[in-house]
Design a protein that fits this description.
Shape: globular
Protein name: Anti-sigma factor
Strand content: 25-35%
Order of helices and strands: HHHHHEHEEEEEEEEEEEEEEHEHEEHEE
Oligomer: single chain
Mean pLDDT: 75
Distance between the termini: 42 Å
Helix content: 25-40%
Structural class: alpha+beta
Low-confidence stretches: 60-64, 85-128, 189-195
CATH architecture of the largest domain: Sandwich
Number of helices: 9
Domain Protein FecR C-terminal: 279-345
Organism: uncultured Cytophagales bacterium
Radius of gyration: 22 Å
Largest sheet: 14 strands, mixed
GO molecular function: sigma factor antagonist activity
Domain FecR protein: 132-234
């Protein structure tokens, strides 16, 4: 492995270092030993190494590796983004009305997007006698509930809780959008009842009941999707003949009519990767990716070319910069992408 001094490397330096990128893409025993020792010697820099490693792995599309030139262009774009972050922010001008190629957007716009995402806001007010937390487009927010359970709200989502949870009463929350729940176990009522141990997420279509578990819930466009990472959950809906009991590694999607549209085994990490600021796509259709972009960033996506909706994409991409995802898609499928004030067009 190269004797180069990596102790002062920043994220962009790692991404542009041939030896590092080659090791991530094609690990070797010597390389593994080198980086294991490097981590031990520089524990304060390990986070930079891991972030760079994750980005390189994400930009290397597993089934169809990006050409070297494409990979370089994506790395160069990331380099420009992080370099721009180090410059003082310049006053922004009002956007023009003329559509422009998204690759021509100024770095200042990228910086503004990143700062907005980092400054996720929430609104805690009285709503139906409870407390409401909300996120805007491109934002996430962690909420700790009174019982110690943790909820990570994804972008464009809203969570409402009662003003208080009386002792012995079941714990209830109401969700619009998407959230990842880590629920604490409770012992129940002093009289031995179990009602106080119940934790219920209401989505409008489905009630998701748990005791103690980790799971992801998405409630958008009249459908509720639940993915179970660990533990056990029960889904109840008025039109279902019986409750649906989920096991770890399962996904269940229910429509507004209560019919079980989908029940299948999945890799739950794929559906909760957003909690680590990543998209994990695994043979994901472009139509689904387009919907994810709209849900997260509030920008409609138009698939102009016939057959694009069914094309699939496999990669891990950071969520904090939409431009990186668009560039990876453009390079992987050899398509043009236009981005204007109203929409993103895949050509």
């Amino acid at each position: 492995m190269s004797p180069k001094d990596y102790s002062e490397f920043e994220l962009a330096d790692f991404l542009l270092d041939d030896a590092f990128v080659q090791w991530v893409k094609t690990p070797t025993p010597d390389g593994d030993v080198f980086w294991k020792n490097w981590r031990r010697q520089h524990p304060d820099r390990e986070w930079v190494l891991e972030e760079a490693r994750g980005l390189v792995q994400g930009l290397y599309v597993r089934r169809d590796p990006l050409p070297a030139g494409s990979f370089r262009r994506i790395q160069g774009h990331l380099d420009g983004v992080y370099a721009a972050l180090e410059e003082p922010a310049a006053p922004s001008e009002a956007p023009g009305r003329r559509p422009s190629r998204w690759l021509g957007w100024a770095a200042a716009a990228v910086v503004a997007l990143l700062l907005l995402a980092a400054g996720a806001w929430y609104r805690a007010g009285r709503a139906g006698g409870g407390t409401e937390y909300a996120t805007g487009y491109g934002q996430t927010r962690t909420v700790t509930l009174p019982d110690g359970s943790r909820v990570l709200l994804n972008a464009n989502s809203r969570l409402r809780t009662p003003a208080r949870w009386p002792e012995g009463a079941r714990r209830e929350v109401w969700l619009e959008g998407e959230a990842f729940f880590t629920v604490t176990k409770q012992s129940g009522r002093p009289d031995g009842g179990t009602e106080g141990a119940r934790f219920v997420v209401h989505t409008g279509q489905v009630d998701v009941e748990v005791l103690g578990t980790r799971f992801n819930v998405t409630n958008r466009r009249g459908q509720t999707t639940v993915t179970l990472n660990e533990g056990k959950v029960k889904l109840e809906e008025g039109n279902l003949d019986r409750a649906v009991i989920m096991q770890p590694g399962e996904l269940v999607r229910l429509g507004g009519n209560g019919a079980a549209l989908v029940r299948k085994k999945v890799n739950p990490v794929q559906y909760s990767a957003w909690t680590q600021n990543n998209y994990l796509f695994d043979d994901t259709p472009l139509a689904e990716i387009a919907q994810r972009i709209e849900d997260t960033y509030g920008v409609p996506v138009v698939l102009e070319r016939p057959g694009l909706a069914e094309r699939t994409f496999s990669a891990t991409i950071p969520t904090k910069n939409l431009d990186v995802l668009l560039l990876a898609l453009s390079e992987a499928f050899g398509m043009e992408i236009e981005k204007n004030e109203k929409e993103i067009v895949f050509k």
